[in-house]
Amino acid sequence: MLNKQKELVTRLSDKELLRQLYLTQLIMLVIASSLGFFLFPDLHSFLALWSLSDMRIVTYGAATAVLVICIDFAAMRIFPEHMLDDGGINQRVFAKRSVPHLLLLTLTISFTEEILFRGIIQTNFGLWASSILFAILHFRYLEKAVLFIMVVGVSFLLGLVYQWTDNLFAPVAAHFMIDFVLALYIRFQYVRRDLYDNHVKSGEKKTE
């Protein structure tokens, strides 16, 4: 499954891949809006799930993000790269983007996914329902056990943050910080490799 996904990703240009990503987020937002229309009595009920004045956005959201980021970096050191390979999607999506674009991307992803999985599904059907659905949607990772466990585990943890705080801003903040830091890391790795390759090429030219 992941090999087919990798082949598909390589066929897409950067613009096409980015378009697909934004389209996916739009579809998720439409699904969330449609479900919300039927599951919430009115817009006020949905807006009541958000509170910017809640300090738990920082205490729970930031703490969760730091925990997940530490686990991710530890996993990168412990497990071989192929066990954490997502088919090249994250590399293609984040590596060549500017920092402002990474900010926009990760904000979009975090808000969209948290609105759907936490705001709509978990609020109305519970933590386990949202976690199971999230796992089903990521079944393609089943052949990568470590990656699958990490992805589903993060989703479950974000669900717990929402359950503990009753505030959608908390899991959104955690999700955003996780994605943004890891996106910056991917970009940093790409830039470092690019600089190294250019340095090697310039050195080869001098020796000719």
UniProtKB/TrEMBL annotation:
The keyword Transmembrane helix applies. InterPro entries: Rce1/LyrA-like_dom (IPR003675). Residues 99-181 form the CAAX prenyl protease 2/Lysostaphin resistance protein A-like domain. The chain crosses the membrane at residues 21-40, 60-79, 99-117, 123-139, 146-162, 168-186. It comes from the Bacteria. The keyword Oxidoreductase does not apply. GO terms for molecular function: peptidase activity. One of its GO terms (biological process) is proteolysis. Keywords: Hydrolase, Membrane, Protease, Transmembrane, Transmembrane helix. This is Membrane protease YdiL (CAAX protease family). It comes from Bacillus capparidis. The lineage of its organism: Bacteria, Bacillati, Bacillota, Bacilli, Bacillales.
